[in-house]
């Protein structure tokens, strides 16, 4: 047997051959190099984990304790079990190459090796290194299983455990120990708005600081708070307090209601504490000798509620009362609390019952509460209550006007009026009855003591307001229904001086010049007050033009008279003041104009009014009418137009009285004028007459259209359809204003000549013409007619009378297979209508593979297409609006599927195990492995073969890459293995490349004689090495492997060069 075959299984050792011309027969290493300074077999280092991205933290010891200079005597190299090199070596110093996180990687220590080679002898030693990582506190505690929520009954005793939290800290040692504390927190705003929520810091605490158990430290009350938010803080216990880290979480505690509240009687107006009525009392009355049956209870019916949210039913009962025989007369319904009188009672027995009502929950705790029911026994009501007044004159009262609310009404002696009520049905020993007063007016009211008072602000006596108020008063029992006979009362408002005198406005006064004393005018002032407050006196406050000495006023009568000479042309303004006795006053001005005299008669027109007609075409200066006024005293007369000539169309001769036209007249602007003409003599006396001028028409106006230009719209396809109406007006009158309408002859429209209504003459087609523009003419009825025109635009509205059509009858698209939601193409159909309505549908074709957007016509794949199944698909696309079979109603879409490499090769058979003799010849065919690829096109369906995996099988077998034939490539006798697992991969040439793997089991049958065990030797018979001619002494040429059958025995190994090294 070959010697090399026998040593193949031996353990190899390394031998270094060093080229050195000076030492041919061996060199001995310097003692101690690569040995440990400490004498130990490994190196232990300590390092602190990184803070963030830190990599420069110190390592202890700072140098590796290995003997030798790393630059001249020894060489050092680090070996790591993985490719991740955490440390780098600089000389004997080790330094981090990347941040070190002890917590994330759970690195309590890191183990690797350092190889030390003695440079002079190539002696090599491997030393284990253990790096111990020290934890820093860089992780806060993390709460587990959040969020936390628990429900706690409200009667839970203090000290009871209600919940527990748990944390984990990624650090170690004391850095991982956690202390807990309940701290103040913030209640969410949305929870505060719901109410009955609170921070739980005062009600809950940790059982101990190092335990996550939460206990109750203060009692709960569901009726006050139903939800607590407990904020829990977890803090680690790093040695340095400044380095400690914290985190918080919130425990939501839902308080569960329990039966801890008594029921409560509730009615409006009771005194409430913690939501329940305190000392509730109910009242009712019964008539003596009458069985009233079900009683009316005040202030409300008897009703109690469970103050817990459990809402247990309530049972009502009487438990005691006075007099003791109350139960003979009254009962209470246990379910509804209705009180019923079962027997008539007489006032001779008692006038009042006091009964204790009990309300009890129908629960295991039988919680209850009580209330008082007072029953008044009233004598038989025979006589109504009677109202009495303290007024001297009963039924009458007085109060000043404008008195504030609350002012008491007085009698004629000035004493407040008090009303009292008596009832002959009540005896001296009967309970006192309280009455309420009802009045038929809102201006006054009666208080609880019977005083009548003002109940409305600003009661005014002065006209037109009433000076007195008459109203009725009825007294009615507060706790009963009996009412008194109406009491009639009249309150008079006493006058106060709150109105100043009022004077009328006076017209200017004209007087003739002269020196005699004359009365001018009497001033009469009115004061709405009465009596002394209404007495008015007059005085002259001021006279303009220094005329104070020329006028006098009687302080009583108010007559103003002249006291001095009046000169013609003088004017005076007299300020007259009227004052009442209370000092209130008003002022008025009297204008005085002095004219010349003695002129006593004014000019007179022959008529009080004149009528005249003038053509609107009258030229300028045309005479309208001559007017004349005769002065009885033959004074010269002057004429003026006082009014009606605002447009300055006319003028009048100042001396002649001739009225003439001075501007062009236009009847269409104004048809009539009314002038007020004044004739005045030299003495200033005058008279007036009215001149009515009518303007006659001429045909001078064109018809004018109202609202032009016109815009109408009409639906297509309608014959005789109304389009719209035009309207023109002519500013003339009579026949000149009569308007007729016409249209051009070549239009598809007709117009009513009299009304202007336009309608279609034939059916219109929007698709041919969607708009018409034309001119309508209006002509008046004059013999020489005038015309007007207006533009008309008629828009034809489209009616949906067209169907969508496809102008393109064929679409082609390419789609890669296996591409869902892939955009195939977009089809388009055209709708000639204005309002486009096109809804796309797939009429024929695989609708399970394709979908179309009904609005846009976009076609997409619903799922991936399979080229190998169908390489082409045909779709017929149509629209919902067009169901015809005519050309253009549909279009065809041809979808070509592009092949993709999506199917891996598949071996045709599962290979059976093969047995070979160990002396089989190299190149022997073992088996054939065929695979096929179902892809549709090349190169995706082209198959190639190769061996995969690792191991010795690749050394002894190979496969034909094209044919899949497996051959023997090595001598099977070299290996002692009796079984090989050959992994064969079949792959295609597509993109991406796909493959599959199968395994062939090959058994080796040993038919040759076993080789006897040999001693130590080289692993190969010969070696080849290349050495550069420039190589220096000490250059490594080759590493030779020496094997030994028993490597566990001590190996005294010396290697020498025996020949070939003589040069």
UniProtKB/TrEMBL annotation:
Signal peptide: 1-29
Alphabetical list of CDD domains matching this protein: Cadherin_repeat
Topology in membrane: Single-pass type I membrane protein
Record-linked Pfam families: Cadherin (PF00028)
PROSITE patterns recorded: CADHERIN_1 (PS00232), CADHERIN_2 (PS50268)
Ranges where the Cadherin domain occurs: 80-143, 144-265, 278-387, 399-503, 520-605, 606-705, 706-806, 807-907, 908-1014
GO CC annotation: adherens junction; catenin complex
Keyword Membrane: yes
Molecular function via GO: beta-catenin binding; cadherin binding; calcium ion binding
GO biological process, one term: cell-cell junction assembly
InterPro entries with a match to the protein in the record: Cadherin, Cadherin-like_dom, Cadherin-like_sf, Cadherin_CS
Record keyword Amino-acid biosynthesis present: no
Keywords, alphabetical: Calcium, Membrane, Repeat, Signal, Transmembrane, Transmembrane helix
SUPFAM superfamilies linked: Cadherin-like
Localization per record: Cell membrane
Protein name, UniProt field: Cadherin-99C isoform X1
Originating organism: Aphis craccivora (Cowpea aphid)
